[in-house]
Design goal:
The complex is a heterodimer of chains A (264) and B (270).
Chain A: H1 2-35, H2 38-42, H3 44-54, H4 59-81, H5 90-128, H6 131-137, H7 142-181, H8 185-195, H9 198-226, H10 231-260
Helix pairs in contact in A: 3-7, 4-5, 4-7, 5-7, 5-8, 5-9, 5-10, 7-9, 9-10
Chain B: E1 5-16, E2 19-30, E3 34-39, H1 45-52, E4 60-65, E5 68-69, H2 75-82, E6 85-88, H3 100-111, H4 116-129, H5 145-156, E7 163-167, H6 175-192, E8 195-200, H7 203-209, E9 212-217, E10 220-225, H8 227-232, H9 236-243, H10 259-262, H11 265-269
């Protein structure tokens, strides 16, 4: 009994120490990525290539998801608003929901699943097949050459993807509200224009998506770089990327929303 | 005046956690020679190669390359040194998102300001040396194991290194590829005027191409000599290793309880 208790305490201690160590390593890794970012801008074609893989190849899933989310918002919003005779505010509801919350958050969750997991798997496999070691032996810093361009590509892609998600979402809401149900088109667009504030709503959404981009890409890169160089290690790291990124996005969204929209 | 040895290892010890991996290693690698480090899997050969390349730091002792102590170099110094080294990894470690041409051009583009036309000529020259000029447009996934190893070799010699490190260059190759890689190691070393260190457990191929051999077992050097001297060894571990005998000083059976005990035969007879 006593032995089991001691074993339990030892296991907990080991997990805590391991967790603190990983957090420290992750912080140093993030700092090193920022410090070695010069090459990502001097040789911007490296970053452009990664923007293609992270951003452009995520476009389909982002656009299709945005369209469906906007259509669902149109249906649900109309259902609720008509009870109060306010169906003309459908455009406002769809646009504000998307630019403030759903656009940045859902695009970030999709980005984490599609691009984040791919980044982790790629870096993990590069490590497992000694490509990272080979780069070090060729006197090329893998943080500067491999990690930093992917980091900045993620940071640049994320707000653009979120903006496209919101735009297609608004179009989806228009299709359902105006084209299908018959809400007045003029009211749909004019009320939206009047209610959505560029700085308060749009810019705050952009800031959110930038922060999500930093968090997801940093997590994905760290998990890949820290993955044990085995098939099982890469597989676990990929799973951890998606789970940790999703939780980080939701937690950061709460914190940012609390500060931005005077909730606190 | 430069030392006769390009690489000198003195009283080198390396411990992983608490497990000693290398103990009291002393080795010299003369300029212009091809030297093999042989031994069974897990005897510390690859660790030794990583210590020479500065990927690991020794627990005690030192590795000197061209008169400089590797573990005392800062990151800049280490990178300057590595630009004069080439390393062939066990399975090539080619960049899978780049073509054969781009893999070989990688170091030239990273470390030099050569114009693209000159890089093209140099890359084709290196690929010609390993017999794969015609494959420069292929992707790594389209290459056989032996071809990938040759492309990796062309990439490793891209900047004409003074020191070449080979980590198990013969692993998993068919007999023809084995001979090709063996010949390339020897000929490229002589053509470049480099020094080569080959970590391997492939005895027969290595004995054909190297000038000197160190035998390692359990983290120590247990024998050394020229290929002829080691072929003539008639007793002990070296004889067993060179002639591929299944039993000898290195037993066939992993230590454990007796077979009868494991099968509980005593209890059955009682």
């Amino acid at each position: 009994m006593l032995e089991r208790a001691i074993e339990g305490i030892r296991g907990t201690g080991h997990r805590v120490v391991n967790g603190v160590w990983r957090l420290g390593f992750a912080s140093r890794f993030f700092l090193a990525t920022l410090l070695h970012s010069g090459m990502s801008f001097r040789r911007f074609q490296l970053t452009i290539k990664e923007i293609y893989f992270s951003g452009v190849l995520s476009l389909i899933i982002i656009l299709v998801s945005g369209l469906f989310v906007g259509m669902v918002l149109g249906l649900q919003g109309y259902e609720t608003l008509q009870k109060y005779g306010s169906e003309s505010a459908l455009g406002t509801l769809v646009a504000l929901s998307l630019v403030r919350e759903l656009g940045p958050v859902l695009a970030a969750l999709l980005f984490a699943s599609r691009a984040g997991s791919a980044i982790t798997a790629e870096i993990g496999l590069m490590k497992a097949t000694e490509q990272i070691s080979a780069m070090e032996m060729m006197a090329v810093d893998p943080i500067a050459r491999v990690v930093a361009p992917r980091f900045w590509a993620g940071v640049i892609s994320m707000p653009l993807l979120a903006a496209m998600f919101s735009a297609t979402g608004v179009f989806g809401g228009y299709l359902i509200g105006v084209v299908l149900i018959g809400v007045d088109e003029g009211q749909f667009w004019s009320q939206m224009q009047a209610a959505v504030d560029f700085r308060q709503d749009v810019m705050n959404g952009v800031i959110k998506s930038c922060v999500f981009g930093v968090a997801i890409t940093a997590i994905a890169l760290f998990e890949g770089y820290d993955a044990p160089p085995t098939a099982e290690g890469v597989s676990h790291a990929t799973t951890r990327t998606v789970v940790t990124s999703a939780l980080a996005v939701l937690a950061l969204d709460f914190i940012l929303t609390a500060f931005m929209f005077r909730g606190l | 005046m430069p030392s006769e040895n390009l690489v000198e290892i003195q009283e080198l010890n390396f411990t992983y956690d608490v497990r000693p991996v290398l103990q009291g290693i002393n080795m010299n690698f003369p300029r212009g020679k091809v030297v093999a480090i042989m031994g069974l899997s897990g005897c510390g050969k690859t660790t030794l190669l990583r210590l020479i390349g500065g990927q690991l730091k020794p627990s005690s002792g030192q590795v000197q390359v061209a008169g400089q102590t590797i573990h005392e170099l800062d990151r800049e110094g280490l990178f300057r040194m590595r630009r004069r080294m080439g390393m062939l990894f066990q399975f090539g470690a080619l960049y899978t998102d780049m073509s054969v041409f781009e893999n070989v051009a990688f170091q030239m583009r990273e470390h030099t300001d050569l114009p693209e036309s000159l890089i093209r000529d140099l890359v084709l020259l290196k690929l010609e040396a390993v017999g794969l000029r015609g494959a420069h447009n292929l992707m790594p996934a389209e290459l056989s194991g032996g071809m990938a190893r040759r492309v990796a070799l062309a990439r490793a010699i891209a900047l004409d290194p003074m020191l070449m490190l080979y980590d198990e260059p013969f692993a998993g190759l068919d007999t023809i590829s084995l001979g090709v890689i063996g010949n390339l190691i020897r000929h490229l070393n002589d053509a470049l005027g480099a020094t080569s260190i080959v970590v391997t457990h492939d005895v027969q191929e290595s004995l054909k191409i190297v000038d000197y051999i160190y035998f390692m077992s359990e983290g120590r050097v247990i024998a050394e000599g020229t290929p002829d001297e080691l072929r003539a060894a008639d007793t002990g571990f070296v004889h067993q290793f060179v002639h591929g005998e299944i039993d000898g000083p290195m037993p066939f059976h992993y230590p454990g309880a007796s077979y009868a005990e494991d099968l509980a035969l005593d209890a059955a007879h009682a």
